[in-house]
Amino acid sequence: MSRVLIAGESWVTQSTHIKGVDSFTTSSYVVGVEPLRRALESRGHEVVHLPAHLVPAGFPGDAAALAEYDVVVLSDIGANSLQLAPEVFEQARPGNDRIAALRGWVGDGGGLLMIGGYLSFTGFEAKAAYRNTVLHEVLPVELLPEDDRVELPAGARADVTGPDHPALGGVDGDWPLLLGYNRVRPRPGADVLATLNGDPLVAVGTHGSGRSAVFTSDCSPHWAPTPFCEEWDGYAKVFGGLVEWLAG
């Protein structure tokens, strides 16, 4: 069993309703982590979820805090949320360099998984911005400098290129359709285990004594529709296999 920290995979939506000359605003809080949490817990892993709005204040700040986990998953949470703790952004006081700490933790034997989304990799309007951080060198892929999202409204199926790699958890057969992903380039020396639309979907590699992996599509809607994340038994195999390989 591994202890897994998932950071991100939640959001707040605010809507403005306009009715004639009057308007009002409503807000909702949505958690997208549940398919991934259930999949990992079904394989015996302990999952700690740090919602996106708590990441700036609560993400582990040093190696000692990160040592509580075997694998850290970053899913749809941009680099700013890790870098800009309240004391840094609001009070202009020096704080922990949490991305540098994460890089060091992986180099010392930790496991890092980045999952795709509008605020993963380079992301929507390049706002995820991991290419500008030292975490870029840890990932088994190279990131684009521009908005890297590829929308696939008609859907596309993964092409599995490394079916026997343990990080895929023994999944077999066709994968359900996916509706988009973040475009990345394979890094020399890394292993691309599956592609989507000809680009890396699953890739794994090493950094120092640790391991890193990417899944460049989503773990929940909208890029991962219900047949993929709720109905397919391969979902738990893929994400379970990734976490177990990362944990060594």
Automatic annotation (TrEMBL):
Record organism: Actinoallomurus iriomotensis
Domain Putative glutamine amidotransferase: 3-247
InterPro entries referenced in this protein's UniProt entry, alphabetically: Class_I_gatase-like (IPR029062), GATase1-like (IPR010768)
Name of the protein this chain belongs to: Putative glutamine amidotransferase domain-containing protein
